[in-house]
Design goal:
alpha/beta; Rossmann fold; five-stranded parallel sheet; five-stranded antiparallel sheet; 14 strands; elongated
Length: 391
């Protein structure tokens, strides 16, 4: 018998309906949990909505610094991109939320956790794999797989019957579904489901189009230490504020938009529009500093494992031994990934102006066409002959 449930709660229509449904269906106390990962959040409204539904324990946490340090930065060190384009902004947020839900469930002696992910998406998998990693015996409630609601209209009717506030923009069916955090914004559904139609400009929330971006280019310098961003334009700051600064730069210069048809873990192809302005700049700069501080074998090894590493994150296996083993390999290459990368940002373009590192493996003398010190072109013939075995 379920007596107490910890619900991942946003305060919006969906999770408010879920909250009431849990109370009615399980006759259990519900603890609401909201993690602030940098999304557009109205703390007062969340508290107001939860209290109106009789919730006694309302938990809201600011986890932005932890999110960047322990989740985004390790992922950037791995140059993670799912299917070559997606920077995994939603996928990387779910493990942290799941971890905290289980910790809160333990603290308040709850015997169940619940989430608002749908039965067709990836998030249900990501949440639940995280739950079970930290508590194999926990009861997991997924309302979208259990209740009889078939549409958004059903949710709205249920909300009306139970005096749940309905946002004005959701009185009819929402034109798209949005998830956002400090790292990215994703938009899916409705008009985007028609592949013959381009994404309308009004769906973009955190980037300008190239047409509306500033006509003046801007330079910025990113400083890295052990593969992590530590300063922008020689100014250190908290990790969340460094990423916020990159987001501002990316937005201003139309950087970070991706329109992708991806393969979901459960086998469905889905179109998503992603905005990751700061993350796009960060990943680009990280690869640039790696290009002069990693040797050939290290770079190529990372390129080989990146697709698998990215897939593990996408599928919800952040806490798996395999992901952790790959992370250890990745991090072993980052000890000398330090220095600065100077970039020019302009209308969707990121242009490298300078790379510098005291640990650089690049030698102008060796690479020069104007003569080389200690390297003879005659050695190339011996090298080629040794490689003939491949044929």
């Amino acid at each position: 018998m379920v007596k107490k449930i910890v619900l991942a709660y946003s305060g919006g229509l969906d999770t408010s309906v879920i909250l009431k449904w849990l109370q009615n269906t399980y006759n259990a106390e519900v603890v609401t949990y909201t993690s602030n990962l940098g999304q557009d959040i109205n703390k007062n409204q969340i508290i107001k909505n939860a209290k109106k539904l009789g919730v006694k324990k309302i938990i809201i946490e600011d986890l932005q610094e932890t999110f960047v340090k322990d989740y985004i930065y390790p992922m950037i060190r791995g140059n993670a991109l799912y299917e070559g384009y997606y920077l995994l902004g939603t996928a990387i947020a779910r493990p942290l939320i799941a971890k905290r839900q289980i910790e809160i469930a333990k603290k308040y002696n709850a015997d169940a956790v619940a989430h608002g992910a749908t039965g067709k998406g990836n998030d249900q998998v990501r949440f639940e794999l995280g739950y079970y990693y930290f508590n194999k015996k926990i009861k997991v409630i997924s309302p979208w797989r259990e209740w009889n609601f078939k549409s958004r209209s059903d949710l709205i009717n249920y909300a009306k019957k139970n005096n749940i506030p309905i946002p004005k923009d959701k009185k009819g069916e929402a034109p798209f579904s949005v998830d956002d955090n400090l790292f990215h914004t994703s938009t899916e559904g409705k008009i985007l489901e028609d592949l013959k139609k381009p994404a309308p400009e009004y769906i973009y929330q955190r980037t300008f189009s190239p047409e509306k971006a500033t006509n003046k280019s801007q330079n910025c310098t990113l400083t890295f230490s052990k593969g992590n961003l530590v300063a922008i334009n020689n100014k250190k700051n908290s990790l969340k504020d460094l990423l916020k600064k990159l987001n501002e730069l990316g937005k201003k210069h139309a950087i970070g938009r991706v329109d992708l048809v991806e393969n979901r873990f459960i086998g469905i192809k889905s179109r998503g529009v992603y905005e990751t302005p700061g993350g796009t700049i960060l990943l680009f700069a990280h690869r640039a500093i790696e290009s002069i501080t990693l040797n050939k074998d290290q770079q190529h090894l990372k390129d080989e494992i990146t697709p698998k590493y990215s897939e593990l994150i996408y599928n919800g296996y952040w806490f798996s031994k395999e992901r952790k083993n790959l992370q250890n390999i990745i991090d072993s290459t980052q000890k000398k990934v330090e220095g600065t990368v100077k970039l020019k940002l302009y209308k969707g373009n990121i242009i490298i102006l300078e790379r510098f590192s005291k640990k650089s493996l690049y030698s102008k003398d060796i690479a020069s066409f104007e003569g080389s010190k200690g390297v003879s072109s005659k050695n190339a013939e011996k090298f080629i002959k040794k490689k003939r075995y491949k044929y």
